[in-house]
Write a structure and sequence with these properties.
The chain is an alpha/beta fold. About 20% of the residues lie in helices and about 20% in strands. The chain folds into three domains: about 180 residues, Ribonuclease Inhibitor (Leucine-rich repeat, LRR (right-handed beta-alpha superhelix), Alpha-Beta Horseshoe); about 90 residues, Phosphorylase Kinase, domain 1 (2-Layer Sandwich), CATH 3.30.200.20; about 140 residues, Transferase(Phosphotransferase) domain 1 (Transferase(Phosphotransferase), domain 1, Orthogonal Bundle).
Length: about 425
Amino acid sequence: MQNLLALKSGELKGAVSLKLSENLTEFPKEIFELADTLEVLDLSFNKLNALPADFGRLKKLRIFFCSENLFTVLPEVLADCPLLDIVGFKSNRIEIVPPRSVNPNLRWLILTNNNIAELPKEIGHCSRMQKLMLSGNRLSALPEELSNCRNLALLRISANKLQELPQWIAQLPKLSWIAFSGNNFSKTPVVETLPLINWHDLEISHLLGEGASGIISKANRTIGDETREVAVKIFKGNVTSDGLPEDEMTAYIAAGYHPGLVNLIGQIALHPEDKKGLVMDLIPHYFYNLGLPPSLESCTRDVFSPERKLSEKQITGIAKTIASLAAQLHEAGMMHGDLYAHNTLIDDEGHTLFGDFGAASFYDKTAEAAAVLERIEVSAYGYLLDDLLSLKDEAVNDDVYKAISEIRDICLNPVPLERPAFQELVDQLVKI
């Protein structure tokens, strides 16, 4: 068992990973006794506000999580760890990010839900950066030097004070997932109110799943003498790494009907804690998740169980459904922002249901940036096709494999505006 007592007694000698959450107010010096082996350190959910000046003694440290603490300044000593790859300081009180605190070796930086008003231009030195999480801060602009991060694939900037979407995002060859709702430039449309469903007409059965933005439960809905099984999502109301839960709810409603979406039945009314929620069709039990979220190693790419194999019917079914749905969203001026296999449910016949609008953002279809934003999402679709092809079973026809491979390649063109629009992809996929 890992705890402070075990650390101080020497029981954890040789540990590669260490996690301590014991209301710590000071960094335990005994951690340095693990310097020869320690690669992963998690000090989240404590009361720390500083790191020791000699923090760089942890020369093998690759991953450091320090979320839910009391830091007001991102520590400069982070630069002293040469192998530091992933840093997470979510939900602190950080106001200042000193230039030196941005370790140029970083591949993944999480600063969600702080009070940051400005980023240093030195962040442009992070040539390895793939994933940057900045939602829930006070940023009014992003440094232009961020355009030097040519490996940046996922960018979360929702719930800030940005005046505009930087033009340089069109220069990023690998940017595929972006969320920007809740900023001064992003206008959330007024959507039609769904039928209101009284909370007291629902009998919650059991938990189906929980995400960053809310909890999904199975429930029975009674209307007169009839009882129907439904799914209920109650939003937590906190800023997530993707953005604001109310924006997710609006986006789901605005998406409209599509066979690739779980059908919405109504909105919750009269919740005892005044929380927002949606009632939707219960997904049939024979649907299952296509993939798993990215790991610390894969960073921006989904991971899959070793036994997962897809038939030709499944590959083409998934590809066509997601392209069609994405075309519908972008026609409405909406970016999903999280187009991934782990947000995709499938069955053995290739029927596909797509969800999780937590990273969705709205944009002006007439604006100059509109074409770029759609092509950024097309890149995410290209990576999804790449995943589908990697999971093919032996019976997939060579011509089908080649045709989808060619579509994947044009979707991943490093020049965003040279990628096709989603409707063009729909038209091409019809021929397969």
